[in-house]
């Protein structure tokens, strides 16, 4: 990677690219860049977004791929994908995006994981990228809504289904739409038919082999009515154009991250995509309202203007276009209708989501049942958790307390949870040496809580360091939602000023054994002053707290869960893991 040569998708130089020092790291970085790019993320590497980023960092607002999928989880769960998973030095999983077999495994795995689809795609045919295909399906759904066709039994046509038959399978599986998929290539046709059967979707998807001479004519018979047609046309006019595309690519545009897949029959058509779409437009003039919405994807932005002017000449009653971006690849989409009452412009959405860094899920643990089941209640566990947090000298602020949830915001400035045994021994030792030294009880010295701690040292074997599968499963399922719940419980916005004051209150009140705030001795007063000055220092250090987290005790069925969500802190998530481990080892009811 050479700084200065790197450009944003729009052609502007990227800023602040990090170049790792050695060759291995650079190589790792490149693989990672490919991965990021593949997931629509290359642009986040530019600290200062270019003028077009607001436009190009886009995926459909309803798509799940605005955050990248968890390759680690996929590698654990899917052996087909695991074969191609590469672990970087950082531990992050990626694949070689230049390897068609790896792309094939990625597509097949995502279709299975996210859509329950079992698909086979030959390596000599186009391997579709799942996010870009699902973007189109979701956009069609928007168009149907705009055309007033949503909610009814939807019938669509997928022109050029390819071997994967991906659009029809996604549309049928996720939306229950009836699809007619057409394909001219006999090998692709066979694969498409098998893929439909493999997923038992014959009742929704019909695959038809067609002639190159037609696109829609002869497919839609008299009296038939379809709600939409969609198409990912062959982009190129010749194999030479296909080959020269990468060479003729403007130096302002970076090379594509992933390799090209598919045969020339997939991507080459006489006259290129404009000619192909102009055939759809011509035929749409004939078919008129028999198909309510016509649409096509465009592989080249330069095709948009000629296509629009053809549509204007065709006298369409409404048209709309959009673009979705995946990594360095943008695809444009156009739709039109001859139905006078359809205003497709209503489907114009400018609220596409920018990439959001995936929120880390909370750490979660099922609190084991004690022998006395009467103690296994939300209240008892909540109280015990709060006590333990306070014993750890954390500031604990109650946030929510009802019959389902008890949640707290906690802040720690010192690591009072690691090496407990060692610290206790040291505390006992120093205690015997300085029995009367008041400093030994100053909160924050890390000693007071250990003296008072009654927690057993017996490690809980069920809860030892997280296993790989536990790590993985923490990312599976609806942790995102759980995270939001916990994060909401934590109340990010409330986490500043008031928490500080409240945090310090217990310290002020804690005047030591037998002490009162009135009529104190001089030494006791000094001790209080020390504590107050320490408190003030801690207040000013608030920004640099070691750990701030949300802690939630919740009931789910018969189980009581303890969840911890990292918010901030110099100790990072590692410190949260340590605190969770502390609870796993010591929480006794
Ligand atoms: C770019 S590929 C798209 C495949 C698939 N829809 C996808 O998005 O991955 C274009 C497909 O259209 C097919 N095709 C080309 N001309 C066609 C025609 N006149 N009618 C139907 N399919 C056609 C090609 O064989 C190829 O499979």
Verbal overview:
- The protein is α/β, with parallel strands linked by helices.
- Helix content is 38%, strand content 16%.
- The protein has 20 helices and 14 strands.
- The strands form three sheets. A seven-stranded mixed sheet has the order 5-4-3-6-7-9-8, with helices on both faces. It has a five-stranded antiparallel sheet with strand order 10-14-13-12-11. A two-stranded antiparallel sheet has the order 1-2.
- Strand 1 and strand 2 form a beta hairpin.
- Helix 6 packs across helix 7, helix 11 packs parallel to helix 12 and helix 18 runs antiparallel to helix 19.
- S-adenosylmethionine binds next to helix 7, strand 4 and helix 10.
Small molecules held by this entry: S-adenosylmethionine
Number of strands: 14
| Sequence stretches where pLDDT stays below 50 over 5 or more residues | 1-57, 350-358, 437-520, 538-542
- Termini separation comes to 56 Å
> Hey, roughly how much beta strand do the residues contain?
15-25%
What is the arithmetic mean of pLDDT? 73
User: What is the overall number of helices?
Assistant: 20
Give the overall silhouette: elongated
Strand order of the largest sheet: 5-4-3-6-7-9-8
Helicity level, as a percent range? 25-40%
**Estimated structural class:** alpha/beta
**Major pleated sheet:** 7 strands, mixed
Cα-atom radius of gyration? 31 Å
Pfam family, one: Methyltransf_10
Family: Belongs to the methyltransferase superfamily. METTL16/RlmF family.
Organism: Dryococelus australis
EC number: 2.1.1.-
